[in-house]
């Protein structure tokens, strides 16, 4: 069960409107690696955790925080859209390149659909969807998803920082940078705890005789040029075994021949003799 | 530029048809973490790499290998669909529960749309899409995406292994398990090389004064109950600093008040005095 | 900013596992009118409200409640998936129709992808997306969206109630039925307050001379048969004007003729003389 | 069965080309609340209506009208795209801000993909999809969906009206405004007829003992601050009962504990003692 | 402008309910190549046609017919869903395999969401979307899209015919088979008329010196094995020139080297000397 | 199994950066008819081919070539994005219309998400998805899909050619034009071989008595105006039979009446007497 205070976790007030920046900030709200993704990813992982309460708590701690981040960014976007030039008389782009750029560049849905509000979409208007997230039931796998999400997220925030010189926007982005630093570090720490117990390969409990073991430490050189050789040659993998490099990968199996489909499928008539 | 041999990288031949297993295997072909995702993710990352040829080569090596994995699984699915019971006379589910289960459970598109062939979709029929992958231009971020993808992928393969006792299917899954082991290890190794040079937090080159530094090492306890405290208390983060824990997070900013939209947006009339 | 208690708003405990019901409950979690939709719809509407704090507060009250409903349903689904028959030896559907029905009918991603957890998807596995919701900046329009959402939602819950006889599942559904009753009533009340002030047609402030007034009270009979006539004939509309009925709608405008595209588009050569 | 006359229901001829307005008009053609949505929503509702022929007729009347609205808007868009500046020599944006704004702002697919024609997509290019509509089998629920759709639709048309001063475009928008007025009024009238018979809460026929009755008239204050209290305090709901307000919502259920998954799922090892 | 008669173009009445067949028929209603696709494809092509009125008329003739086909299939689906076993007491799948198969196999949304009605989705529940269709402004290109659509459509109908022995369903499918025959033939005829005038390659008016002419008649053997050689060797293409076959394709261009991104993108540090 | 050489099949080097052209080129990479579509379409068709090895080989030959085309276009896009103006100081659009146009017009994800790299999306940012392709198991149907795809593809490339005067970009587009010429010709040739054997209508093996034969050669005049009559009148169809034209199509079936749904669906109460 959740409760809400209307106070924001951090300041989200621009010094002036900027509809183009509003459009770009949608990426970290409703994009593949925006706050909606981390919020839902952590909450679903938390709700689905079985028998590991301290991990569950940490996931729910940070998932709950992320709802507040969505709130901050949505609030920022709404204010960046103030005074967006949507009237026809402002269509005077023939003489004013500044207005022209905004007319051409702002997201038309911010005015037509959302009345100067944010939406759960990315910077090109593609709606957020549930296949952006993963909750697998395996904590190490999921913590790796989280480390990745926070790395992509902080990278995007750092790029957005360059795209504005508004001190209010930068202040909020600076807060997000800091929280993404912490979130990277905490998921790395949590993952390490599991790796120390279960080893580096996910999932750790696959019976050894299931794997085709002779190929589980080879880097195959499928792209001509052996620049990648130095990445593994003479090195030990994180599980302690030596890597191998195969310059000319060989196919294990013959060309497959499929038998014709039955007539009720109305596939093409097979012309080959079989 | 690519070339193809019709030989398969590994055996992909079931001992008998099984349309339900065909449906399930679609997950590791065209699902969020299926082979289409890793293939496209590694190739796009490789093509977009700038100034790091040995990483580029490794990404293209493995991305190219993954095209061959799609081929193996597609071939397996086509053969598992042999003799699927699609005719009306086989609709005799009133008396034969085995046929009934297959009739109800197989993916109808495998017959109606694909004529007993595989499709670029997941196990519930949702088509693969380009937002499953990431190619960010930052190698460490992307290698973390890759470590995650191979962890989720190997986890799914291990679960599918339990769902069949067909030795042919299991043999192919055993090969994929082994390759996913290697792929996890190689991306971990590659990530470590960058971490050793650039540090643990992505991206490493954000100016220190951009971050709101006082919050970049705190775990906020937004979910009541302090089980998560032990995850960080007294521990050093991977970047060497100490973690902090804040039991009762405090909001930095006041409740935001948005000013009314201009009349041309036809938003609701504001009733509050401002 | 949000906080979380791990206590659930209401009980969410089935008396026994049921993977088929788990699949069906996904509809009210991540479907078009599931809890993810109402949660996001109310929160975005609340964050985007300008100058109407009591409406904003009500939207955020109920939007926050809905996060807790997602939590309840996700928790229920996780427990309904306990003991799902995913192993090959349980594939013995040839002799046991009960297991057969579950094998064929359960959502394979619940096992393969989510490890017996819920996901932000609907009952056929289509992921939730941001275009399910609306936040328009016009409160009356949005309250009507909310009335609709709660009507569809309560309808779906009532149908699901028939599909189970598990007292635990029914208890939770009974709670959702009650909350959806209240939510319908509260949005109806809130809409009435605005209608009383601004009138029935959204938006109320369109200049009268913009409309082609002669057609704004006619029901056109475009489908042969005049059964619909009695719906409007002799009745006054909610805005006080009389409805009209036009049995044989007439076109206002001539057939349009488009001029050929310029050659640089490589459209078809126009063959008509113009 | 349908027939078509090439005459348009109303005039759809701009006085001059305007590729930016063409892009924006896509919203009311193929957006979430565009004409494709109302057309499909009303037709599917009509086709699925069981035992209420006058409602069915009205739905099919208006659904059929909406196909003609798609036609009008598509025709308008095609003409607004005349003379779109797509050639390289027109790329002279370095000196002409008017052309620059169009080059940057027009939808590139209007030229590359559609050869100056309309497409079933919204103003940012996201394709229309079948999950924008609802046909539930419950007329009151669906009429509420229709009231909402026409409210959102008329709101969007009124916003677009401000974005152009082309008299031809405004004339067509004025016609759509008028029809949306009528459509709002007719669905409100139809809904009232059902509400008068079945009551205000959908669906009306849920057995009273299914609901957890003690919570079906409470507004829970989940968002700190009691501005929303006045929305319900001392008021009667539309079903005649009094509303209640709960300042501090209490959780009914304890924190849930999920039991560990079986080993064949390869979830994380549970570390908690249970 | 369109008008509607409630009479169906052809009979659409099953002799008995069959919820599994209802699910499968969704494929030809709202699937990639269902009636919604051909309806929208032909109507948009017709509306966008410039200067070729007889083609435009033909497209609108058949596009309008297809709306009636959607209506027939939707009506059929609604009746196949009569008496679907949705109540819990019908969940008695432990003893009745027939009900078990239907419970497991029917589309749950047909009951939960649509109240026994059809929806604009395919046989696995994926919603129809606007990117299934093409309207390019080039008639020959689009007629080829139409020939393809009718070929896939008729193929799917013929497969569905095998999946039922209900004479009513088969009667309707037999009508659709016949219409798809005609539609294939009419688009082939129309395409031939344009090919006779403009030649076989689309678009016909690309200046000859734009093409890299030395490669426009070669089949490259990128997949090892020369079985494809006989497809072209010694044959003349439809444009009169001879085909060529190249057994060992050679790359024209060197390995590309991308220059590093500027620091403001926070890409990886380039380690290669350039 | 596939192998890769880093050499490009053809040159892909622009003479100068152009972020707007980068955005537009995404259409032929990840759009509905971009290279990702033809690559996947041909490979899946090849892998699913049963008993026709020379067709299978040809599909795999060209499918493999198309991976190399994706590589060329991705490489071109990465270089067109060099020096994209993403920094705030470059936001000087108030005075420089050239920069303004680029700021407004470039795809923001190219900077924020991809760090100046290509992505599997189209020119408006919609991700590629698996429902763009078809692999039906019927070769003639699929070859028609391929003829269409190459026609749409070459049309789009020819339009893009006009949008740039960069000789490097034009050189690559000229190569693609040539290859699309060949691919159109080769699929036409392959389709003819099957048509010669199986006839023109797909699928050829539907029993004659399944079709409602009296309607399989009629063009119905559903759109008022008989311009289309000359398309068929007095002409023989490709299968040798005469076309017919019906000026006033007549409905075969009466208006359908659906029986009410059972109470457990909570549909509207039927008000009609039945």
UniProtKB/TrEMBL annotation, chains A, B, C, D, E, F:
<keyword id="KW-0464">Manganese</keyword>
<feature type="binding site">
    <location>
        <position position="35"/>
    </location>
    <ligand>
        <name>Mn(2+) 1</name>
    </ligand>
</feature>
<feature type="binding site">
    <location>
        <position position="225"/>
    </location>
    <ligand>
        <name>Ca(2+)</name>
    </ligand>
</feature>
<feature type="binding site">
    <location>
        <position position="183"/>
    </location>
    <ligand>
        <name>Mn(2+) 1</name>
    </ligand>
</feature>
<dbReference type="InterPro" id="IPR007760">
    <property type="entry name" value="Mn_catalase"/>
</dbReference>
<feature type="binding site">
    <location>
        <position position="69"/>
    </location>
    <ligand>
        <name>Mn(2+) 1</name>
    </ligand>
</feature>
<feature type="binding site">
    <location>
        <position position="150"/>
    </location>
    <ligand>
        <name>Mn(2+) 1</name>
    </ligand>
</feature>
<feature type="binding site">
    <location>
        <position position="57"/>
    </location>
    <ligand>
        <name>Ca(2+)</name>
    </ligand>
</feature>
<keyword id="KW-0106">Calcium</keyword>
<dbReference type="InterPro" id="IPR039377">
    <property type="entry name" value="Mn_catalase_dom"/>
</dbReference>
<dbReference type="InterPro" id="IPR009078">
    <property type="entry name" value="Ferritin-like_SF"/>
</dbReference>
<keyword id="KW-0479">Metal-binding</keyword>
<dbReference type="InterPro" id="IPR012347">
    <property type="entry name" value="Ferritin-like"/>
</dbReference>
<feature type="region of interest" description="Disordered">
    <location>
        <begin position="255"/>
        <end position="274"/>
    </location>
</feature>
<dbReference type="Pfam" id="PF05067">
    <property type="entry name" value="Mn_catalase"/>
</dbReference>
<feature type="binding site">
    <location>
        <position position="221"/>
    </location>
    <ligand>
        <name>Ca(2+)</name>
    </ligand>
</feature>
<feature type="binding site">
    <location>
        <position position="66"/>
    </location>
    <ligand>
        <name>Mn(2+) 2</name>
    </ligand>
</feature>
<dbReference type="InterPro" id="IPR027407">
    <property type="entry name" value="Mn_catalase_C"/>
</dbReference>
<protein>
    <submittedName>
        <fullName>Mn-containing catalase</fullName>
    </submittedName>
</protein>
<feature type="binding site">
    <location>
        <position position="223"/>
    </location>
    <ligand>
        <name>Ca(2+)</name>
    </ligand>
</feature>
<feature type="compositionally biased region" description="Polar residues">
    <location>
        <begin position="265"/>
        <end position="274"/>
    </location>
</feature>
<dbReference type="GO" id="GO:0046872">
    <property type="term" value="F:metal ion binding"/>
</dbReference>
<feature type="binding site">
    <location>
        <position position="61"/>
    </location>
    <ligand>
        <name>Ca(2+)</name>
    </ligand>
</feature>
<comment type="similarity">
    <text>Belongs to the manganese catalase family.</text>
</comment>
């Amino acid at each position: 069960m959740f409760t809400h205070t209307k106070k924001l976790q951090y300041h989200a007030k621009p010094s002036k409107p900027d509809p183009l920046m509003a459009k770009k900030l949608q990426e970290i709200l409703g994009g593949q690696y925006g706050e909606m993704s981390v919020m839902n990813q952590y909450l679903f992982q938390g709700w689905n955790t079985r028998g590991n309460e301290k991990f569950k708590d940490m996931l729910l701690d940070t998932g709950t925080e992320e709802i507040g981040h969505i709130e901050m960014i949505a609030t920022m976007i709404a204010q960046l859209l103030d005074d967006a030039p949507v009237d026809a008389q402002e269509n005077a782009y023939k003489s004013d390149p500044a207005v022209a750029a905004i007319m051409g560049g702002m997201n038309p849905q911010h005015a037509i659909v959302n009345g100067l509000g944010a939406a759960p979409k990315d910077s090109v208007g593609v709606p957020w969807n549930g296949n952006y997230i993963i909750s697998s039931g395996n904590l190490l796998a999921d913590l790796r998803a989280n480390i990745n999400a926070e790395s992509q997220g902080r990278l995007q925030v750092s790029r957005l920082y360059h795209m504005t010189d508004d001190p209010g926007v930068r202040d909020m982005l600076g807060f997000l940078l800091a929280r993404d630093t912490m979130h990277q570090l905490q998921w790395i720490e949590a993952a390490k705890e599991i790796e120390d117990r279960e080893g580096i390969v996910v999932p750790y409990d696959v019976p050894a005789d299931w794997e085709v073991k002779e190929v589980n430490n080879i880097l195959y050189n499928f792209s001509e040029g052996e620049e990648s050789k130095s990445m593994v040659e003479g090195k030990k993998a994180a599980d302690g075994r030596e890597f191998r490099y195969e310059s000319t990968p060989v196919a294990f199996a013959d060309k497959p021949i499929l038998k014709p489909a039955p007539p009720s499928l109305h596939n093409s008539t097979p012309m080959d003799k079989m």
